[in-house]
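Help! Submission page says 'invalid entity' but I think these are all valid:
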Amino acid sequence: MTKSSTKTPVSWWEAQEVGSGQRLECRVGSLALTIGRGKDEWTLASSGIAEEDAEAKASFRIVKGLSEEVDERFVHSGHSGQVLLSPRLADRPVVIRPRQPVFLLSGQTITLYLSTPIWLQVQVGDPAVLLKELPVLRLSDTWFGPSTREGELCYAGRTQARHDPAELPDRPHRAITPLTIHNKAASPLPLEKISLPVPLLALYGDQQGKLWTQAVTLTRQEQGEMASIQIDSKASDGGSEWTRLAEPRQDTGRSGMTRAFDLLFGH
Amino acid sequence: MIQDLLSSFQYETLMAMFRAGILVILGLFLASLTSRLTRRLLQQRVSIQMQQLLRRIVFYGLLALFIASAMRELGFSLAVIMGAAGVLTVALGFASQTTASNLISGLFLIGERSFEIGDIIRVGDTTGEVLSIDALSVKLRTFDNLFVRIPNETLIKSEVTTLTRFPIRRLDLHLGVAYKEDINQVREVLMAVADANTLCLDEPVPLFIFTGFGDSALEIQFSVWAKRENFLALRNGITSEIKDAFDQAGIEIPFPHRSLYAGEATKPFPIRIVDHAPPEQDS
């Protein structure tokens, strides 16, 4: 049996050491990743785990010996055996569909906690060199737009649309976005499809190893035609304990934007 | 006195002819010199056909100028020549009808912008990538790497499909399931396959249409959408996934069926068993 040592840092995105001839076996939610350090090269193998079998906490194990089945090999001669798994948010907006239709009546406000799977950047060495960036869970493609001629390609997500943060299950591979929706129009707002502008959000990690983004506020204007998005400049709850892990992929430069209503809320 | 006039007239004519001759020779000399100069200047820049064409144009152009002035010296009126040239132009016009049509069609095609360089178009049976939109024709490269030239006139007159215009594309799958199958179950199986396939778009929602009661099977159309670049990958992926899902669910895709009746639908088919031994044959 190969000797192994298990260590699970609470903040699993911190650096780990892998000696030469050893491999690091990681399980982050629905992704199983094996990073091996050979002589002057690093090897990478990944496989998916069904979401039902995903564990609540990320786990890491250092095993002696390199595995024979590798997906990719990266030539990199360096003395440092440091491995850094940095989480990042998805590279496209995520379209969230609540499992049951939710109706927001006129004048009401609701805060939903939506989760999106993260991408992992595998970096090795010191200074850190990026080997690969891969998603923890490959979501299905979907199209979000007013017609088949215009719109953008997004990822499709399903959510339970929980209001209570205490109900949120522990899942290390998903980042939670608190989304507040105000309905200032006279008619009820059906929340069937919401396009969450994930590339505009930054990623934060808290002390328990959970991942968060800033709060996003969507306001449907009185006339009902336009909706405004407001993204907080920094994380709101427990701001001082949270570490900013990743910058937004796209920077709009403005915190508030107004878009046509049907670009945010599909029908 | 008449003799003086005649001799001076002859003298004028001779001088004119002499001057005309000089002009023509000078013209020939200058024209050939200029054409050689043109060739030297354009050697690296343009193709051989273009070079030769330009040389000829320069040569004959200059020569024509000098001949025209020589003719003027001799007293010929240029108006007559212009008249002849007018008739020639009309004749040329009739001959170059197609070329002119192609030229103008080309301008309209470019103005319309229904396809651009790099787009993939289908004209009739030919599908290919647009390499260039030239004055008289459009050049395509087909998928099996052949070069096709399509006159602009044909493009203006006929239907052109631009496959790369919109970002997403629908794949229509036509399948048939056996009559004994439950259509709702088939629909659920197909929707589950589409849901599990990551390349298949969740929105627009996959379309399930029961097209009719076929000869041998229940005809179904299942349409799924994908990003245009993933179309081929989806086509190959989802068809094999559907086959696997059908096999797992026990849904049968039938072969063509033919039913035989012995006159009445309910009566059994009469069969007579013949003795195996073949009869004796002569020769």
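Support: the input was valid. A stray whitespace character was the problem, and the output above is from the cleaned input. Residues 261-264 of chain A form the longest helix (4 residues).
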